[in-house]
Design goal:
The complex is a heterotrimer of chains A (844), B (167) and C (431). Chain A folds into five domains: 97 residues, Ubiquitin-like (UB roll), CATH 3.10.20.740; 121 residues, Alpha-Beta Plaits; 185 residues, Rossmann fold; 162 residues, Dimethylsulfoxide Reductase, domain 2, CATH 3.40.228; 93 residues, Beta Barrel (Barwin-like endoglucanases), CATH 2.40.40.20. Chain A is of the alpha/beta class and 844 residues long. In chain A, strands 16-15-26-25-24-17-18 form a seven-stranded mixed sheet. In chain A, 26% of the residues lie in helices and 20% in strands. Chain A is globular and about 95 Å long. Chain B has 167 residues and is an alpha+beta fold. The N and C termini of chain B lie far apart (57 Å). Chain C has 431 residues and is α/β, with parallel strands linked by helices. Chain C has 20 helices and nine strands. In chain C, strands 6-5-9-7-8 form a five-stranded mixed sheet, covered by helices on one side. A four-stranded parallel sheet of chain C has the order 3-2-1-4, with helices on both faces. The chains are: A alpha/beta (844), B alpha+beta (167), C alpha/beta (431). At the A-C interface, helix 2 of A face helix 14 and helix 15 of C.
């Protein structure tokens, strides 16, 4: 516990821990010291000189080392000759800080006068107007007139594109360096920086494509002027015309808290439209950061004109529009008739309420609830997941994080950021991956394995521990660890807290189940279960995959058989036909296919009934993050007429089939859910909406301090307790992984990329140029052997079919391996031998 | 008593020869005073470019929330106003408007002014919403209508040097 | 007895060759230090000598060495050869004529603070000098005076040269360290100071070339001997880079405490065309300008007495200005310099130097009035006390003292019409 220091700021007594900066100490008692370059999440630099205050310290007698006292017995305070910056000076005992004296006020006025000399008169056309720290601080502290002549103003590039997503206005930039320091310190990818010097100091990007970082959008939040703005919100609306609505990102399992800003738009016929996405502060999930996918793609799909709005029935081989009554009746009758032969195939995009109702329906009709997921282990995560109270932001020296089989920045960017920062704070980071990823630079231990041997690696690490805690199976002995694995295992065991994240790199269902089990066993043997900051996290493919597991959905390796033999297939928020042509064939063989979707996907095209649904920004619901935190999202925009939320459709089908289900409101469904799913016991929409004060204080009137992220007033969610924490059950099963013969030739490996062609990403206007066409990655040796070069169009031969793709050379790829990103059109879902041929020149 | 009646009636009779103060509206219209606040006009520059830059300051200043603005970006092929930004949607709800003139005071480019037209009537609410096409003034001789195709780099500054206001 | 401590090559020809230097007692001090003295004893000797930093700040050198953090390793020594102050050209002559004494100073300093690597940071324009120094370092390595286990002791040392890229700000010690690390040359926050957190975050001693060149003689002949020259609080000799409108501009090595009059008239040969001294800038462009009264000319040049005439000795690049020059023109020059060299990190210097330069240009062109002069003074005063490093602060010294002490020059300029021959048309080509 750090020592508390007492000081006075503007005649207010303050008591703060040692090492607190004066700016932050002042915030604690409600005094706002203006800053530009300082940001509470970054190291101070003292560049802008806006926070200059008068600081007085008690005069210390050189001999006695005690404060000199005056006649009244008060310490004599010596004020420094010059003003000092409050953002760089830590507090000291007995300090007296004057933030309101004439000298300080004149200082602030002078600095603002300097900043405004070359700052252009852009307020009416600048997107930041209305939420601009420079505007606000000028009103409060600045001079009324400028003595600078317009003709002498420096003219620099306006709307200079730093990549496609961010625009830089070099005239407005006040050279505070927050963007550069954010990319350097927090993200660790310095793709922007200063160039030239003096008044000509300007921001430039050093990457191609420009500003090549998944976190680029965050710089527009922290920029104190309108220098960095996003292209999607350019001239969109004035901040005071926007209404904020709290929500949760629907793209990945981190569950970043976001705020949609909505406004009625004439272009949209007077409807409410989402104008932009900003982060919402949640220190335990995403702090105040969101990745670019959330910012630019997370909602644009909802506005796509391709949205389905009317139910459709297949008549005479064609899909024709029909009414809800008719469609639901057809579905209910066929489902009832298919009792015992129903397969519900649901994706992780659905909310807990939807999944609960779908499960009720499926169970009531004695069907099977199948989850669309390439990776398994969700039940293990429910048992051995991170305990309630886990906060990646609290990990540091003495803690360990093990990341296995995951390209974390592509799969869950904000977890990558939090893990990287934990490593910066001294946490032992063990990265176990077949190839180099962007996490390796921060790793304490890096282990490599061949694709397919991830479980073997973990078992070897278990072996290295030589634990006596439980009887280890005999077959474990043949997994002999090398010295790197031993060192890593011992480091993980020796840490105070340990978290394991397992991801999607080269993963398929059976392998990931084995891996999850092995990881759970490792956690058990190292006593890293059952308490906060310990446990297992699965880096799922969708936002609510964990919720789907919790609601009782399970993935299956026998999809083809299930689909072809099912009497009815109910596909919700998934596109199996689009993912894999063999699944399309299987679906064709089933008797009855219902698709409940946003868009007319490939599966919808071969369905018998198509039901249009409400999108996530248009309704209420909850998501469960990969750290098992349940969070609420709120409706931002009205749904297009004719659509119904998934939970309601499921309930109405259920009712028509003779089941009693809740269809009126999501909160009511959640109440049922909380009553029946044991882990969710005691939760309610009210408890999910509770908040507490977070530090640093961001999102109130002083937006110069933290940026334009929103304060979280609508709910911090509740983190669930895994069974390992609740009942201290640590079941240790051992499962020897089967021996799989690896073939010769090229091995196709599925990996994940952040920008893919998923249904909710492709409609995004902003990311359109960054969403790639199908491509595969090989290393130079493989390319040479194939006699091919970078960016060559090729055909990937997979299970007898050919898929067009671009060949790209990447040095990190191991030999004889072909990396195939998922969701780009090539249906590789497990490690499989592949072949590459030159593309035919005849057009398709 | 007769004297009083005659005196009264003579006042009445004298009125017959007084010049009437009645103005025969609508055939004769009294000119409005300077600074009269009538219907809004969105002004143009002499070369035809619109003065309005879509900044929404008028909407922000309006005490009756009568103005709705949406902005968009100028390109040199399709230029509506000098600078980067122009108003793609500009609507005033004349039933809400109280003709206070705050919008005119707030405008940084002297684009919106309250003109002399007071002859406004509507038969339903929808027709009280005046769009940009109805509010923008016609192009002066010598100017070209917007959108214009211009040389790149010519009109880079959104906000001009302001002159003293005239009526 | 040599009249020179530092510019000994003026008496001894070919002193820039290693064998000649060794013949004249070269590297005896270094040998004495590493074989017979403890590092702390070397530091104490330098402390006792009262040697003060010659780069401009005048901080006691021995005291700086003693501040080095002995809990954090490794240590580094960096020689600041980024001689960019206008009017300063002393380090160049040392490195050209007497390089081995300088290198020996670096090596003794490295021994005193127990550094195994020392860097010589030269301004980018000194690429030829750097190449020469590289050759000399190689010669020292060949002679066994650098490398591992020098002269059989367990002291190892390697020297490296590094070129800057044309920035005056990289003469500021923390900006120098940033540039040496390969980053943008902008000063760091101080505290912490380089002896605790320097190059790559390790304790580093940054000293000027001239300072280090004094060190071998102090170690060889002792602190007491050193204190016999100069004044009590500013001992030793100093190289004064006399320039401006004197007949014999150049480097003059004289004991500290020599008067301006002696330097300018006895050694510098007086002013050209018999003109009178109007102003003296003792610290190059960063000076507070001294009005050349008789009293001022008789002021001894050391770190204390210059303060009495409202100035600071600085790096002793004494620029002499005669009465044919308008101070307004001089200040316009200094402002152009500072605007060009400002690193841009902190607001007052970045915006203020730019603004001051523009006002000064307008004054030069005759397009300004009394109010603009007021503004110029006010802006300069607003910059003072708010900057991150000394560049910003010192950029205002010439302006404020110039306006205060030479107001008539400015007023004369304001009254003149626009002059087509004015300096900023020349400067416009530069900027």
């Amino acid at each position: 516990m750090a020592q508390l220091i007492s000081l006075m700021i503007d005649d207010k007594p303050v008591k703060v821990p040692e090492g607190t900066l004066i700016v932050n100490a002042a915030k604690k008692v409600g005094i706002d010291i203006p800053v530009f370059c300082y940001h509470p999440k970054m190291e101070p630099v003292g560049m802008c000189r806006m926070c200059l205050v008068e600081i007085g310290r008690p005069q210390i007698d050189r001999e006695t080392r005690k404060p000199v006292l005056d006649e009244q017995g008060n310490p004599v305070i010596q004020f420094g000759p010059k003003l000092e910056t409050a953002c760089t000076t830590p507090v000291s005992e007995g300090m007296v800080v004057m933030g309101m004296s004439d000298k300080v006020k004149k200082g602030r006025q002078d600095i603002l006068e300097f900043l405004l000399t070359s700052h252009p008169l852009d307020c009416p056309i600048c997107d930041k107007g209305g939420e601009c720290p420079l505007q606000n601080l000028t009103m409060e502290h600045g001079p009324g007139v400028s003595r600078f002549l317009y003709d002498e103003k420096m003219h620099l590039a306006k709307h200079y594109p730093l990549g496609d997503l961010i625009l830089l206005d070099r005239e407005r930039c006040i050279q505070c360096g927050r963007c550069v320091r954010f990319q350097d310190e927090i993200v660790g990818e310095p793709v922007i920086g200063f160039e030239q010097r003096g008044r000509s100091l300007q921001i430039e990007t050093f990457s191609d494509p420009g500003f090549d970082s998944y976190y680029s959008g965050n710089t527009t939040d922290i920029c104190p002027v309108g220098a960095l703005t996003t292209t999607d919100f350019r001239f969109g609306a004035r901040p005071w015309e926007l209404k904020p609505v709290a929500s949760v990102c629907s793209q990945c399992p981190v569950g970043c808290n976001i705020t949609y800003n909505i406004r009625r738009e004439a272009r949209a016929g007077g409807r409410y439209v989402i104008k932009r996405v900003l982060p919402r502060q949640h220190e335990e999930v995403n702090e105040i950061w969101i990745c670019d996918k959330a910012r630019f793609a997370g909602y644009q799909y909802a506005e796509s004109p391709e949205r389905l709005t009317r139910p459709m029935l297949r008549r005479n081989g064609e899909l024709v529009e029909s009414s809800w009554d008719e469609a639901l009746q057809v579905v209910a009758e066929r489902f009832k008739a298919a009792t015992g032969g129903l397969v519900t195939y649901a994706g992780g995009r659905l909310s807990n309420e939807d999944l609960f109702n779908l499960k009720q329906l499926t169970e009531g009709l004695k069907g099977q609830a199948i989850l669309k997921s390439s990776i398994g282990g969700g039940v293990l995560v429910a048992q051995m997941g991170v305990a309630k109270g886990t906060d990646l932001g609290k990990l540091g020296a003495g803690d360990a994080i093990l990341v296995i089989a995951s390209d974390l920045q592509e799969e869950a960017p904000i977890w990558w950021l939090r893990v990287k920062q934990a490593a910066d704070r001294g946490a032992t980071l063990i990265v176990v991956n077949p190839r180099q990823t962007r996490l390796d630079r921060f790793a304490t231990h890096t282990l490599r394995y061949d694709y397919g041997s991830e479980t073997a690696t973990v078992l070897a690490m278990i072996n290295a521990l030589e634990s006596k805690k439980t009887r280890l199976p005999d077959w474990l002995a043949k997994y002999r660890p090398n010295r790197f694995q031993t060192a890593a295992a011992k480091a993980f065991a020796g840490a105070k807290n340990g978290i394991i994240l397992f991801g999607q790199e080269g993963m398929d269902l059976p392998r990931s189940q084995e891996l999850a089990l092995a990881c759970a066993n490792l956690l058990f043997l190292t006593d890293h279960l059952g308490s906060p900051n310990n446990g297992l996290i699965g880096v799922w493919e969708s936002a609510n995959t964990q919720g789907a597991w919790d609601m009782g959905f399970r993935p299956s390796t026998e999809l083809k058989e299930m689909f072809s033999s099912a009497r009815a297939v109910y596909v919700v928020a998934a596109d199996p036909a689009g993912d894999d042509p063999s699944l399309a064939d299987a679906l064709e063989q089933s008797e009855f296919v219902v698709v409940q979707e946003l868009f007319l996907t490939s599966t919808a095209r071969l369905a018998d009934v198509v039901l249009p649904v409400t999108a996530q920004p248009e309704r209420e619901g909850t998501y469960t993050t990969g750290e098992r935190r349940v969070q609420r999202f709120f409706p931002a925009i009205p749904a297009p007429g004719g659509v119904i939320p998934d939970y309601e459709i499921a309930a109405r089908i259920g009712e028509r089939s003779g089941l009693k289900m809740e269809n009126r409101a999501a909160s009511l469904v959640f109440a049922q859910l909380a009553a029946r799913v044991s882990d969710y016991e005691g939760l309610s929409y009210r408890s999910l909406a509770e908040t507490h004060e977070q530090w640093p204080i961001i999102g109130r009137d002083d937006l110069y301090y933290g940026g334009t992220a929103y304060e979280n007033t609508q709910g911090l969610g509740v983190q669930l307790m895994p069974s390992s924490q609740k009942r201290k059950i640590f079941q240790v099963n051992w499962q020897e992984p089967p021996v799989r013969v690896s073939g010769k030739g090229l091995l196709g490996v599925p990996i994940t990329r952040l920008y893919d062609r998923g249904a909710t990403v492709t409609p995004s206007r902003s990311l359109a140029s960054r969403v790639p066409g199908p491509f595969i990655l090989v290393n130079e040796t493989t390319a040479q052997k194939l006699d091919m070069h970078n960016d060559a169009p090729v055909q990937l031969m997979l299970a007898g079919s050919a898929y067009s793709a671009m060949l790209r050379v990447d040095t990190a790829v191991p030999e004889s391996v072909v990396l195939v990103p998922r969701s780009l059109g090539i249906p590789l879902s497990e490690l499989q031998p592949v072949d590459i041929r030159v593309a035919e020149t005849t057009p398709a | 008593m007769l004297k009083e009646i005659v005196r009264g009636l003579s006042t009445t009779f004298r009125q017959i020869f007084e010049k009437p103060v009645t103005i025969q509206y609508p055939e004769v219209k009294r000119p409005v005073r300077p600074r009269f606040k009538g219907r809004h006009i969105l002004k143009r520059y002499d070369n035809g470019l619109e003065k309005c830059i879509g900044c929404s300051l008028c909407a922000a200043a309006c005490p009756a929330d009568a103005i709705f603005v949406e902005a968009a970006e100028n390109t040199d092929e399709l230029r509506y106003s000098p600078g980067e930004r122009y108003a793609s949607t500009y609507e005033i709800n004349l039933l809400r408007c109280i003709f206070c003139g705050y919008c005119e005071d707030a405008c940084p480019t002297e684009a919106i002014i309250l003109g002399d037209n007071y002859e406004l009537s509507f038969t339903d609410r929808r027709s009280a919403i005046y769009t940009k096409e109805m509010l923008i003034e016609p192009v002066k001789p010598g100017g070209k209508p917007t959108p214009q195709k211009v040389e790149p780099g010519k009109f880079t500054r959104s906000i001009p040097d302001m002159q003293d206001p005239q009526d | 007895m040599s009249t020179f401590l530092l510019l000994r090559h003026r008496e001894i020809p070919n002193l820039d060759q290693l064998d000649v230097y060794r013949q004249h007692g070269g590297f005896e001090a270094f040998q004495k230090a590493i074989t017979t003295l403890q590092p702390k004893e070397v530091t104490d000797e330098v402390k006792a000598s009262g040697l003060r930093g010659r780069g401009g700040a005048g901080f006691p050198t021995g005291m700086k060495w003693s501040f080095i953090d002995n809990n954090n390793w490794p240590h580094y020594v960096v020689a600041n050869a980024d001689e960019s102050e206008p009017g300063t050209f002393k380090d160049r002559e040392i490195m050209e004529g007497n390089p081995y004494q300088f290198l020996e100073g670096v090596m003794i300093c490295a021994y005193a603070v127990q550094a195994q690597s020392a860097y010589i940071y030269l301004r980018g324009e000194f690429w030829q000098l750097a190449a020469e120094l590289d050759k000399r370092i190689q010669a020292l390595e060949a002679a066994g005076l650098l490398g591992d286990n020098i002269l059989g002791t367990n002291f190892s040392l390697r020297l490296y040269t590094h070129l800057g890229a044309g920035a005056y700000i990289c003469g500021e010690e923390t900006a120098l360290l940033e540039s040496l690390e390969g980053k943008l040359g902008q000063p760091r926050l101080r505290p912490p100071f380089p002896p605790s957190y320097g190059l790559y975050g390790k304790p580093t001693i940054v000293n000027n070339v001239e300072t280090l060149t004094n060190v071998p003689l102090i170690v060889a002949r002792g602190a007491k001997w050193y204190k016999t020259m100069g004044t009590e609080r500013s001992p030793g000799t100093k190289i004064f880079s006399l320039c401006g409108q004197v007949n014999k501009p150049g480097n003059y090595e004289l004991p500290l405490g020599t008067t301006f009059r002696e330097l300018i008239f006895t050694h510098g040969g007086g002013l050209k065309d018999g003109r009178k001294v109007k102003a003296i800038m003792p610290a190059g462009a960063s000076s507070s300008i001294i009005v050349a009264t008789e009293e001022a000319l008789d002021t001894p040049m050391d770190y204390e007495n210059t303060q009495k005439v409202g100035s600071v000795l600085g790096s002793a690049s004494v620029i002499v200005i005669d009465d044919s020059v308008s101070m307004e023109w001089v200040i316009n020059k200094t402002l152009h310099f500072f605007k060009h060299e400002s690193c841009g990190k902190c607001t007052p210097c970045r915006e203020g130097t730019y603004w001051m330069m523009h006002i000064s240009d307008r004054i030069s062109r005759g397009q300004a009035n009394e109010e603009d002069l007021e503004t110029l003074n006010d802006v300069a005063l607003n910059i003072q006390g708010k900057c991150l490093c000394a560049l910003g602060e010192f950029s205002t010294m010439a302006v404020v003292t110039g306006i205060e002490r030479f107001k008539s020059d400015f007023e004369l300029r304001l009254a003149q019409n626009a002059n087509p021959e004015s300096p900023e048309t020349v400067l416009a080509a530069v900027d």
